[in-house]
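Cross-check.
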Amino acid sequence: MKHGFVRVAAATPFVKVADCEQNADRIIELINIAAEKEIKLIVFPELSVTGYTCGDLFLQDTLLGRAQEEVKRIKEHTKSMDVVVVIGFPYAMNDKLYNTAAVIQRGKVLGLVPKSSIPNYIDFYELRHFTPGFIKPVVVPFLDENVYFGTGILFQCTNMPDFTFGVEIGEDLWIPQSPSISHCTAGAYIIANPSASDVTIGKDSYRRDLVNQQSAKLVCGYINANAGEGESTTDLVFAGHNMIAENGKMLSESSVYENGITQSEVDLSMLKSERRRRNTYFGQVSTEYVVVPFSLCEEDTLSEIPLTRLIASSPFVPTNKEDRESRCRDIINIQVQGLKTRLAHIGTKHAIIGLSGGLDSTLAILIVHKTFERLNLDKKGIIAVTMPCFGTTDRTYRNAIILAECLGVTLKEIPIRDAVELHFRDIGHDKEKHDITYENSQARERTQILMDLANMYNGIVIGTGDLSELALGWATYNGDHMSMYAVNSSVPKTLVQHLVSYSCELATDNKLKAVLQDILDTPVSPELLPPKEGEINQKTEEIVGPYELHDFYLYYIMRFGFEPSKIYRLAKIAFAEKYPDDVLLKWLKIFYRRFFAQQYKRSCLPDGPKVGSVSLSPRGALRMPSDASSAMWMKELEKL
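Predicted model, tokenized:
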């Protein structure tokens, strides 16, 4: 439960229609398994005690009475269990019958929630038996207790308040004004949906989209437990298909035609963080709601349960190839559209770009090239400038020239060694002293040349630096830090690699394909220090750390505001087979240190298109004082 994770489950037992005792036995078996797995909330299908397909048997007193007895047996079975259980049964009150969910924990019924939307169309005829529920809860006697009955109930854990959930049943999800909307605006972070949705061609895909979208719209965890094998197949087939979604992402999903338990962990602190960011999230909270408390063992709320949900090592990069290619297409189109609009507004036919033979400038010139195509501009208006100096290697120099030739742009070679050495003499710097002055003088000289060429050609300088470099401050202030439009400014390094790789796969020119592949294989380096035996001497990732780690840290810090201990925990899972814990912690400390110290560079960034949910633009995405203290974060890191 530590760091806001709560383990939840959707369960589909094998049912025997109208055999309440047998159904209760199967439910109890699954509850026992849930307790062993440290599941804290388990949801069963609607009417799971009787079976959903009892038809007119729901009007039989024998069935209704036995269903209530079996709910009592299930209740008694949970006396020593922390797990909260949601089961479905038919409940009779005031001469009306309700399709109801009982919420049970530790031998008590916490509440009874009726189904609001009773379908009576096509294959469904629930109105023949059931009455729609009402919002404002009333107190009713049930199994020797007085409990709340109504849809306006939230169930809240007293010693973990964010563990608050509401219940809607089956069709309630499929209507325009779902009860879950009110539940979440009233404070629920999880929605439990006991359901009985039949299987027809394509319905599983539609149901999946519906659950995902509801969890995204409401910024919640959504548990959908569906009726499965054992239900009557007189006219319909019920085939399970349990789902657990979180904020638009499917955490866990069973196959269709599969009974059993589907589990995952919902990240309550992430949901809370996401809601805080959306100041339009909450509407008017209904005054008709009641909050029913329950508690968990104190040890459970503090325990660090092993996570079964996937923690991707590259959160910016989809693992699925088709999704990854779609992401690459979208990003390239955003970058091109941003630059296209800027060039058209200025009315220029020239773009100036420093071409180093590295990944970032390669992506940038590919974007410029595609933009010129869409504007029907002459590619010779792209002025690619290679500016070799002390650290330039033959490999990157050659790749820059070949790339420019393949793209048909104008290539200018302007060596800057003499200019930098003259600058050293002017400021009294020893050129044999390879310090920060030695490095940054080269970067600033290159930027000066690009800016002056922009004046000559009445064009603009295209920035090549990426999001990861900005996060770490790995840019020379008023050097490569500055441009007139920065096309890569919100693209993390891990995505830059995939975007160039994607462009390489699409290339039809074998020479272009070969040079892009070699650029991908070249170590990332600013090439500001002299080579060793002709090879790159200055490898960025050996200095500031692996970009895949920094992108991972950046994502969870900026996207959700997680604390260092939680990010460290997630990193240990994501990179368990690649980096030892001490290495992960070392680079996490360096990330925080550099992130806070280098904000002044981000406070005056040039314009650039936002492509994803994480950006560091000072005009919207990150409004952070340049002199903010990192003491609290570093103190927590030291404790780790």
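The chain has two domains: 2-302, 321-639. The radius of gyration is 30 Å. Passed to J.P. for a second look.
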